[in-house]
């Protein structure tokens, strides 16, 4: 039948286009996830006059903020007062350069960051932040731990899916693309879970430690990158699975036609 080669070529082009688009979406989502994990703008606090706030308390705020013994309440109060930003791995505040007890407020500001240690990621959260005798707040504790683990699981699943995809290219087969699609779907669920855990954690924290009236809080662009990454992963998963399943169906029908 002379029309079969043309039809087969059209099918191959359609599958190839779907796979190329899926690979591009997967690459973009991986870049977005890596950028969101490595940056410190998941949540931002904006204070009306951070320089004045810092000069009133002197160096005590900075010393408590950088202390290894700083508890959740201590560094959260500093974030409120000093235009703080929080990431998955670091917390940052904006302070004047060379601030002293005797010096007037400076307009020349600098941003200083402190990293969360690995033990900080798994430390217990308390019902009353800063009060170790108030008992463990299990909801916030496990939300904090999940928001640390889920992004790495998501990136790991996508990398494993990419490895399977390379094997599929070497074997010149679309069948392994189903596994790649499933892994991307699971990665999207992890990213979605990360976003949900982070939002829930912030809301629960603000119920315990409400920001002052002159402090405005908002989710930052690092958080937005994670939000965008999730639908990209789902779209890539759908394209991988569609291409593999449809190609298998077309191949089965074509084989049955030739046998007949």
Automatic annotation (TrEMBL):
GO cellular component, one term: membrane
InterPro entries referenced in this protein's UniProt entry, alphabetically: CLDN1, PMP22/EMP/MP20/Claudin
Keywords: Membrane, Transmembrane, Transmembrane helix
Entry keyword GTP-binding: no
Biological source species: Malurus elegans (Red-winged fairywren)
Gene transcribed to yield this protein: Cldnd1
Location, primary (coarse class): membrane
Subcellular location per the Swiss-Prot or TrEMBL entry: Membrane
Protein name: CLDN1 protein
Domain of life: Eukaryota
Recorded topology in the membrane: Multi-pass membrane protein
Pfam families (alphabetical): Claudin_2
Keyword Secreted: no
Membrane-spanning parts: 15-35, 148-170, 182-201, 221-244
């Amino acid at each position: 039948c002379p029309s079969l080669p043309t039809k087969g070529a059209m099918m191959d082009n359609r599958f190839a286009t779907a796979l190329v688009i899926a690979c591009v979406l997967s690459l973009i989502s991986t870049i977005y996830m890596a950028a969101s994990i490595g940056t410190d703008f998941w949540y931002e606090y904006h204070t009306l006059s951070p320089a004045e706030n810092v000069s009133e308390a002197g160096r005590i705020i900075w010393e408590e903020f950088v202390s290894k013994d700083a508890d959740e309440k201590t560094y959260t109060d500093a974030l409120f007062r000093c235009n703080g930003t929080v990431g998955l791995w670091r917390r940052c505040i904006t302070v004047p350069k060379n601030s002293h007890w005797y010096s007037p407020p400076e307009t020349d500001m600098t941003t200083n960051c402190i990293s969360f240690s690995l033990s900080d990621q798994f430390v217990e959260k308390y019902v009353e932040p800063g009060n170790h005798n108030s008992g463990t707040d299990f909801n916030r504790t496990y939300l904090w731990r999940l928001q640390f683990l889920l992004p790495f699981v998501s990136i790991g699943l996508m990398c494993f899916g990419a490895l399977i995809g390379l094997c599929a290219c070497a074997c010149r087969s679309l069948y392994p693309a189903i596994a790649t699609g499933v892994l991307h779907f699971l990665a999207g669920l992890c990213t979605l879970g990360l976003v949900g855990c982070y939002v829930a954690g912030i809301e629960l924290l603000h119920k315990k430690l409400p920001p002052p009236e002159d402090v405005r809080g908002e989710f930052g662009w690092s958080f937005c990158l994670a939000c965008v990454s999730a639908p990209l992963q789902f779209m890539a998963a759908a394209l991988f699975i569609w291409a593999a399943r449809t190609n298998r169906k077309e191949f089965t029908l074509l084989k049955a036609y030739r046998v007949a």
